[in-house]
Amino acid sequence: MDIKKTCFVAIVGLPNVGKSSLINSLVEFPVSIVSLKSQTTRDAINAIYNKDNLQILFVDTPGFHMRINNLSNSLNYAINSTLEGIDLVLFLHPVDKPVDQNTRFLAKKIAKNMNKIVLITKTDLENDKLNFKIQEKNFRELNFEKILPFSTNSEDLRINLLLEIEKFAYPSDHFYSNLDVTDQSSRFFAKEIIRKQILLNLEDEIPHQSAVLIDNFDESDNRFVKIEATIYVGKKSHLPIIIGKGGSVLGKIGTDARRELEEIFGKKVVLKNRVSIAKKWFNNPKMIKRFGY
Fold first, then answer.
1. 144-175: per-residue pLDDT in tens?
2. Averaged over 204-226, what is the pLDDT?
């Protein structure tokens, strides 16, 4: 009888280095929301990879921020908490970005872990061989021994990474069913998809000062899911922007979110969004906790 094996893997890096894209690629499911804007991921999300007797549990952490406000502090605390009890840390850095002060600061924190791999992301090996060699040298100087290229467009690199991760797995019963791809609830996915569409439809400042609460999530009818959500903004001046002329922006956020949720849930979604003000919530510890960060 084959022995079951498990591995807990934390995915860490600065904002917008490809953490969410990586995790979605590895488990082949959109567990973590992806956008081109930083601070997309605010929650540590467990994604689950299953193959034969191997189960890998990925934790997608928020991008590390130098202290900006209480929300940044909360996100950074989530990263530090995640590293406890982890079997392997994947530290991500884009092939085309310099290793700056923030990268070095975080890399030194990660370097203390026994098991760690640097992933040089967004790498096209045909075009980025020189840049990869430069980054490889940079991270060897920061006491990392294993440095691998990665691109979500390369199945070979994906398989190679999974084989490397398997080396750190240990004999253990699996924590989740082989059919699971995440431990997050449908309610959580609804919140994240709405927040994703805010990120995609609005300028930089407003998405980072907005939060979403699911007020009602009703899937009692097998034909559809009924969702009511409140989008909170940090300033009164943001209200007309997020609502838009005649409700056009809020309507588009709702339509785009509904379509994506219908793909995930496999049924019709009835989504109702409203907007409210939570003044400077990102500096209010009680509000940060209320919003789940």
1. 999 999 998 889 999 999 999 999 999 999 99
2. 85
Q: What is the pTM of this model?
A: 0.71
What is the token pair recorded at 8? 């807990």
Burial of 90 (0-12, 13-18, 19+ CB in 10 A): buried
Extents of the domains making up the chain: 3-169, 184-289
Gap between the Cα atoms of 279 and 123, Å rounded: 41
What is the dotted CATH code of the domain comprising 3-169?
3.40.50.300
Numbered residues of the known binding site: 13-20, 60-64, 121-124
End-to-end CA, the chain: 43
Q: Which fold has domain 184-289?
A: GMP Synthetase; Chain A, domain 3 (3.30.300)
Tokens of residue 74, six digits: 């909360």
Annotated binding site for GTP: which residue ranges?
13-20, 60-64, 121-124
**Which helix or strand (DSSP H or E) is residue 274 part of?**
strand 268-277
What pLDDT, on a 0 to 100 scale, did the predictor assign at position 280?
A: 79
SS3 track for 187-227:
HHHHHHHHHHHHHHHCCCHHHHCEEEEEEEEECCCCCEEEE
Q: Read off the pLDDT of residues 64-97 as tens digits, 9 standing for 90 and up.
A: 544 544 444 444 555 556 677 789 999 999 998 9
Tokens at residue 11, please? 């995915």
The angle at the Cα of 123, spanning 120 to 127, to the nearest 5 degrees, equals 135
